[in-house]
């Protein structure tokens, strides 16, 4: 049976560390503030925004909320972001995705100042990541690195296979693993004989968006499996991209869904907020 990697507990540890750090910053007269923008009332987005605000409150990070109607224009949103770029009281800006279809997400991401881009999505943030410069790291991949490190799982010299090549997870995940001196293979929907490739992985990171797609056929004995997926199955139960019941007996360590990668994303967002004022 595989060791269960407890993302909730590791995220709690990180938030406690950040809480202490923020208190120390306040004693030096330094404040941290996150501006959160939500457009429309998508139920999932509302839950995510609420959780981010709760994390800010717990750690001691200030937050400003901007709730725009779903009918808000792209120009209205651009104008709001530009004003927050200039606001000296705001350290980080987060625009909750997805946005309504009439708004160009790429334009909004590019409008956020790279120095306040706590999601790590701006092209300049991505460039800094790939060339090893200091900058904001994509929250989910950064959270996975912390999951592995704090679970005592070595990355250096090991073969890491990523299933999925998105700009949010797959690509930045590859860059961060390379920083840790891992050997990295990125697979995707056009990869031939996917099970043969994934069975070579010492560490398998799955972010493909397909419910319980990865079965034991895709995993070698003793591998570490990180499941980034989040779905509700036909019985309305949360599950991931990995068939946990089938894979878990075969691996050395695995993340559950829920309670694995998810809590780490918010913890690392909070870390990016604090990073804005670190010396």
The oligomerization state is single chain
Mind describing the biggest β-sheet?
Answer: 6 strands, parallel
In which order are the strands of the major sheet placed?
1-11-8-7-5-6
How far is it from the N-terminal to the C-terminal residue, by CA?
A: 44 Å
Detailed description of the structure:
The protein contains ten helices and eleven strands. With 279 residues, it is of the alpha/beta class. It has two domains: 85 residues, Rossmann fold (3-Layer(aba) Sandwich); 124 residues, 3-Layer(aba) Sandwich (Rossmann fold). A hairpin with a 5-residue loop joins strand 9 and strand 10. Helix 1 packs parallel to helix 10 and helix 2 crosses helix 10. It is globular, with a radius of gyration of 19 Å. The relative contact order is 0.17. The mean pLDDT is 96.
Structure at a glance:
By secondary structure, the chain is α/β, with parallel strands linked by helices. It has helices at residues 7-27, 43-59, 74-86, 105-111, 123-131, 139-150, 170-179, 194-198, 244-247, 262-275; strands spanning 3-4, 33-39, 62-68, 92-95, 159-163, 183-187, 203-206, 224-227, 231-232, 238-239, 253-254.
How do the strands and helices of this protein lay out in sequence?
Blueprint: E1 3-4, H1 7-27, E2 33-39, H2 43-59, E3 62-68, H3 74-86, E4 92-95, H4 105-111, H5 123-131, H6 139-150, E5 159-163, H7 170-179, E6 183-187, H8 194-198, E7 203-206, E8 224-227, E9 231-232, E10 238-239, H9 244-247, E11 253-254, H10 262-275
Parallel strand pairs: 1-11, 2-3, 2-4, 5-6, 5-7, 7-8, 8-11
Antiparallel strand pairs: 9-10
Helix pairs in contact: 1-10, 2-10, 6-7, 6-10
């Amino acid at each position: 049976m595989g060791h269960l990697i407890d993302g909730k507990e590791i995220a709690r540890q990180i938030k406690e560390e950040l809480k202490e750090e923020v208190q120390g910053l306040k004693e030096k007269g330094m404040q941290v503030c996150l501006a959160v923008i939500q457009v429309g009332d998508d139920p999932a987005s509302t839950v995510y925004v609420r959780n981010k605000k709760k994390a800010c409150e717990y750690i001691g990070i200030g937050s400003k909320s901007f709730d725009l109607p779903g009918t808000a224009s792209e120009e209205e949103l651009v104008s709001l972001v530009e004003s927050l770029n200039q606001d000296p009281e705001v350290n980080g800006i987060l625009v909750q995705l997805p946005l309504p279809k009439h708004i160009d997400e790429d334009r909004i991401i590019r409008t956020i100042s790279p120095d306040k881009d706590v999601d790590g999505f701006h092209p300049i943030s991505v460039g800094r990541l790939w060339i090893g410069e200091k900058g904001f790291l994509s929250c989910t991949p950064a959270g996975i690195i912390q999951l592995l490190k704090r679970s005592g799982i070595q990355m250096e010299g090991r073969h890491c296979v990523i299933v999925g090549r998105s700009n949010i997870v797959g690509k930045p995940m590859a860059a961060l693993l390379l920083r840790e001196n891992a050997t990295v293979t990125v697979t995707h929907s056009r990869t031939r004989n996917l099970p043969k490739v994934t069975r070579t992985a010492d560490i398998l990171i799955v972010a493909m968006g397909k419910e319980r797609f990865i079965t034991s056929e895709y995993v070698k004995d003793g591998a570490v499996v990180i499941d980034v997926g989040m779905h509700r199955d036909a019985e309305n139960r949360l599950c991931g991209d990995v068939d946990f019941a089938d894979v878990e007996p075969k691996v050395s360590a695995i993340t559950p869904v829920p309670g694995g990668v998810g809590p780490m994303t918010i913890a690392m967002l909070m870390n990016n907020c604090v990073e804005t004022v670190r010396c």
